Amino acid sequence: MSASMEIARRVADAVLYEGYLLYPYRASATKNQARWQFGVLVPPAYTATAEHAACRTECLLEASEDAVLRIGLRFLQVRSRTVERAEGAGHRPVPALEVAGETYLTFDESVEREHDMVVPLAEVLASERIHEVRHDAARTVERLPAPPGAPAGRIVREDRRIDAVLAVRAERIDGPYGLVKLRVRVENTTAWADPDAPRDEALRCSLIAAHTLLAVEGGSFVSLLDPPAWAATAARSCENVRTWPVLAGEEGRRDVMLSAPIILYDYPSIAQESPGELFDSTEIDELLSLRTLTLTEEEKREARATDPRAAEIIDRVGDLPPEVLARLHGGVHHLRPFERESVPWWDPGADTAVSPGTDSVVVDGVTLSRGSGVRLLPGRGTSRARRADAHDMFLAGRSATVEAVFLDVDGVRHLAVTLDDDPGADLQREQGRFLYFSPDEVEPLAGGKEDG
């Protein structure tokens, strides 16, 4: 189970920091003023937002009563980081401070919290087991080194108190299959006095990106996404509130489940091509890496001062070898094993009745095929009259050359064209990137082939 749990934890780490810090990774960026969006469990008395105090996971497992469960609760706690400048006998909070050539910014950080609960299945079948979660308030002061005679400063970090409960209960499902429904509830129970306080204040007493890792010894979980027929009714009876449980770990094994605040599929994994975390919500590594490389030196300086993880991104992206960056450009991953055909489905040779390079279509009595000249009339006719957008309309009246005639799965033909006055037309032909129009959106130009 260790290998499965290791795989599951890597995915869980990505969940933990999903949206933690958004490109361009600078504290001053507008979108970094509204962080902490996933799996937020606020104090129950805080009502200024639509966020909730609890989440609940229900899942199925096949197990005898001597099975043992391990439930892991993981979340982030927001830690305030305030930079203060020395003034007289005291200190004054400031947005930023430069000391000995280094820039320090006031910006919230986070600290990982993790709680494990190991319990025999027989115990939670008998009654609910509750694990109390508590983190006391704490304050630390880091003095910033400064040359003699230079203004001194310090960083003050503060954690607010957090109280929560992790509750586990199980029940047998009637029937011949020996199924057990497992229920895991996570609830923030932190005392809160001001229901209308700013969200940033409440977040410091909240569980952020809260999720659970479930493991069983002596049993197996049942997929809720693709349950066997005999468990389908029981799977539909599971009610998951603000969480989404999926099988995790080594594919084919069923001893680990990840219940996260984002939608995943069974056996999620981290792409092998990804060189490291980018935190940017459903990230596209190549795009974000290239974007990061375009930051100015001043922007990179601010990003490094924003957060240690942002500094790591800036440094890692700046040092990516060309072959690693090229690997990010794309990869082919199959969701399930398949039998390779002699000719791939996407190859034009897969259907010898279709030949985009030689096929033709008749428009206004003229046969159009590769090399034919046409005038573009987007929105004309019935097929696209209500679908032509502003980009199409910019091309109205322009002349183009037909590059291919395609047939889609519905038996409808489409013309792939390049613009005659586009200096990049040769590059588009080389790469197979065309503009597409239906036959009733073009008008044949002189030189077209007469029908029949």
The main β sheet shows up as: 11 strands, antiparallel
Q: What global shape is seen?
A: flat
Average pLDDT, all residues: 88
Fraction of helical residues: 10-25%
Helical element count? 10
Rg on CA atoms, Å = 30 Å
Structural class: alpha+beta
Terminal CA distance: 70 Å
Low-confidence stretches: none
Work out the count of structural domains: 2
Percentage of residues in strands:
35-45%
Quaternary state reads single chain
Tell me the total number of β-strands: 21
Describe this structure in words.
With 452 residues, this protein is α+β, with helices and mostly antiparallel strands. It has 2 domains: 2-80 and 106-327, no CATH class; 355-450, Roll (SH3 type barrels), CATH 2.30.30. The chain has helices at 2-16, 121-126, 199-203, 232-237, 285-293, 297-306, 308-318, 322-327, 390-393, 425-431, and strands spanning 54-87, 90-94, 96-99, 102-105, 109-120, 129-135, 138-144, 153-159, 162-172, 179-188, 208-222, 244-247, 256-260, 361-363, 366-368, 373-376, 399-407, 413-419, 435-437, 442-444, 449-450. α5 (285-293) crosses α7 (308-318) and α6 (297-306) crosses α7. It starts with a helix and ends with a strand. The model has no long low-confidence stretch (mean pLDDT 88).
